[in-house]
Specification:
five-stranded antiparallel beta sheet
Length: 138
Amino acid sequence: MRLVIPENFGIPPIPAGWYRVSVIGNEVQTSKEGTQMINWHMRVESQGSDPAVPTVGRMLFERSVIVEKCLFRLNNLLKAATGGGLPKGEIEVDALIAYVVPRILNSSLLVQVIHEEWEGQQKENIKNYKPISAPVAA
């Protein structure tokens, strides 16, 4: 028996734009190179501009890689979720993870979804974060 596997299983990508999300889960993982990262699970809580593409309840995923050159993204996520940034000074990776996870988990914020090509396919990515109270340009 032959099967035809659809390209996207009939689920259109979440359109580009700003969405309110709730951070509902996370996983801490270690890459093959030994770098720790936090995978965030975010549930979309707002409808996008195209009513033909339902977005409420859809999932977005974000990865925070815990290396110095990437900490600005984690800092921006923490600021959007809580209003406060990362602690200053030196900190062990495990202590940093223990600091940010309970602060970000179960929070609500705005994320900017963009589309980028990856391996020949359009992929949803989160470009930016804002607190719920921040104005969003149309």
